Amino acid sequence: MGVPLVEIAGLTVDFGNDWRSRAVDGVDLAIAPGEALGVVGESGSGKSVTWLAALGLLPARARVGGSVRLEGQQLVGAPARLLESVRGKRIAMIFQDPSSCLNPVHRIGRQLGEALKLHRGLSGAAGEAETLRLLDQVGIADAKRRLSDYPHQLSGGLNQRVMIAMALAGQPDLLVADEPTTALDATIQAQILALLAGIRRDTGMALVLISHDLGVVAENVSRVAVMYAGRLVEEGLGQDLFDAPRHPYTQGLLAALPTLTGPRRRLAAIPGTVPEPGKAPAGCSFAPRCPLAEPRCMSEPPASRRVGLLHRAACHLQIEPGFSAGALPRAAE
Ligand code: SF4
After folding, report:
1. What single string gives the DSSP state of each residue in 89-158?
2. Site to substitute for ligand 1 among 45, 234, 298, 316, most atoms within 8 A of C-beta
């Protein structure tokens, strides 16, 4: 990777006073200009909190440590004014439920117009022309008529397109899409993912696609980072990670995906749940659910190490490509 657009180093987020209650624990991650990165993991793995922390969007009681640099400029602890100039303009974020982000009592034309005025100083005829262009770019037909609609008059898919248009209003260098399709049905999900891919291709914008669903990220990103209990447990090029996952957690996630071909089989589930902050063992957070756990896994946190070209995993074991932890019996709880 050349000079990263965003470089996260040693990022920590604490909501309590005990270091073991960390929601994000020493995350290192870099995104190149124009790159598409998938961040996957179950609910509670720290995917969203990582990016909310990076953008200074967490409540005041959250303590954020480490470093987040945007083209070298430090964002952790940066003044509110600097963060306001970054949010929406350099880095935009969209969320799972657009109806919770759009104002229900304002027409969508007005909401888009406000975003354009704030981020690019556009108003009047220029603002309306750009509003129409953005709605057209996100595939909303009859855009002029839609300007006077309220969010409740639009379907979930159309509201998500409006959210994407608002995110594009500032012409960001990076769009962080946090579970953008989870609330949508399968056909609309595919349309929104294709839309994001097309926009990225046309604008050169980088994309971070956050999802609990490896299937969603598989076809839409070039690199994948897997998070578990606030830590980055595996990271690699999409093909490497899907063909030869090296961390038992990633193997478990892949084993849980349904297949379209071959004989019908019972879906494999990873037993247990992600530990709450403060309830994970001092060593590897995945140990209580890992079929390969050894005694040292409970007390020694595994370091991230290189397991291939551009491929890293945080596990004490040297798991070879092709080995599947899913085939082994699970460890005792
Ligand atoms: Fe499993 Fe131990 Fe590796 Fe953690 S370090 S994933 S518990 S084998």
Report:
1. TTEEEE-S-GGGTS-TTS-HHHHHHHHHHHHH---HHHHHHHHHHHHHHTT-SSHHHHTT--GGGS-HHH
2. 316
At how many degrees (to 10) do helices 124-137 and 156-168 cross?
130
CA of 235 to the centre of ligand 1 (A): 16
Q: φ and ψ at 137, to 5 degrees?
A: -60, -35
Q: What is the pTM of this model?
A: 0.90
- Rounded distance, CA 215 to CA 14, Å? 30
> Alpha carbon of 202 to those of 151, 170, 171, 329: distances in Å?
27, 15, 12, 47
Whether the per-residue pLDDT at 195 is higher than 80: the answer is yes
pLDDT tens-place string over residues 154-168? 998 899 999 999 999
What's the gap in Å between 276 CA and the centre of ligand 1? 18
Residues with CB under 6 A from ligand 1: 247-248, 284, 286-287, 290, 292-294, 297, 302, 315-317
Distance from the alpha carbon of residue 316 to the mean position of ligand 1, in angstroms: 6
Local structure of 74: helix, strand or coil: strand
Angstrom distance (rounded) from CA 140 to CA 304: 44
200 to 64, 94, 162: CA distances (angstroms): 30, 15, 17
236 three-class SS: strand
The continuous run of DSSP H or E covering 223 comes out as strand 223-228
